[in-house]
């Protein structure tokens, strides 16, 4: 098959994916979104003959626009722009999870530092303030005191981009020093790992230690439903254990739409790029079958 | 003639020194300069061109 990879930076994740696709004899077109233009009818990117395009943009804004344009031309895109739209924004992400009745940390959004302060005081200390768009644990604040809250809110209101004036306030979940990352394709787990750290942020990007994790039935159900809640696709579903290690109870704090998987590939026995490409092949075949059906209708 | 396992040689755009890249290097990949530690982006492979990589942007991530 002919697969396009949307990118602006080739990380180890993309190298693993490219290697697996090429090893299987697929023709890969790398599309550097920084070099292309996207019009209302067509793009400078060479996408006409592609069976599927996989969005691996490092930049969320580029990811959202590029996938939206490609989708409008009828090019099959993984993940769908609708999924990206929900996952890229923590507020929309939380709403989608709550609407699907999936346990997720209590969250409020406020638009001024005064109302944000009210939300923080109601949650009590510690609580968490996050940017609505962002990743890798950047600009996350665990707020322990009113003094700290006032300082952070003033800094965000004064220095920040307008998105930083959307104050996303969340309860602090007292997780057991780790959270769980699941890579799932249309709700089916490919691999799962824990990310552990003495720091309250346990992201692998922040240096959290990773270890393979076996999902129980409850976690499997939540992963499937969380995937469906955001529109499905290739996703990184993040869960925290509530009530201690092995309690069997979880809260889903977010779903990521351009999921990195190099840490999962190293931490588990699963050949993650192989499983991902298995799924991409199935998606491309399904897209081709849909095209054929439309052509004969 | 080069093979797939031969290292790729390139000029460090900051110091001008010749540096060695992995044989499987990809356009778009980021390489840490062994000379200065600066992040360098692989712009092309034929010829091999490196440039200083863009700074981290706020919306980067997964």
Structure description:
The complex is a heterodimer of chains A (297) and B (62). Chain A folds into three domains: 81 residues, Rossmann fold; 66 residues, Dna Ligase, domain 1 (2-Layer Sandwich); 99 residues, D-amino Acid Aminotransferase, Chain A, domain 1 (2-Layer Sandwich), CATH 3.30.470. Chain A has nine helices and 13 strands. In chain A, strands 11-10-9-12-13 form a five-stranded antiparallel β-sheet, with helices on both faces. A four-stranded parallel β-sheet of chain A has the order 2-1-3-4, sandwiched between helices. In chain A, a hairpin with a 2-residue loop joins strand 9 and strand 10. Chain A is globular. The mean pLDDT of chain A is 95. Chain B is mainly β. Chain B has a single domain, classed as Rubrerythrin, domain 2 (Single Sheet). In chain B, strands 3-4-5 form a three-stranded antiparallel β-sheet, with no helix packed on it. A two-stranded antiparallel ribbon of chain B has the order 1-2. In chain B, strand 4 and strand 5 form a beta hairpin. The chains are: A alpha+beta (297), B mainly beta (62). Chains A and B meet through helix 1 of A and loops of B. Chain B: This is Lysine biosynthesis protein LysW. Chain B: It comes from Halorubrum salipaludis. Chain B: InterPro entries: LysW (IPR005906).
Distance between the termini of chain B: 39 Å
> Main sheet of chain A: which strands, in order across?
11-10-9-12-13
For the biggest sheet of chain B, the summary is: 3 strands, antiparallel
Query: What portion of the residues of chain A fall into strands of 2 or more residues?
Result: 15-25%
Distance between the termini of chain A: 24 Å
| Series of H and E elements of chain A | EHEEHEHHEHEEHEEEEHEEHH
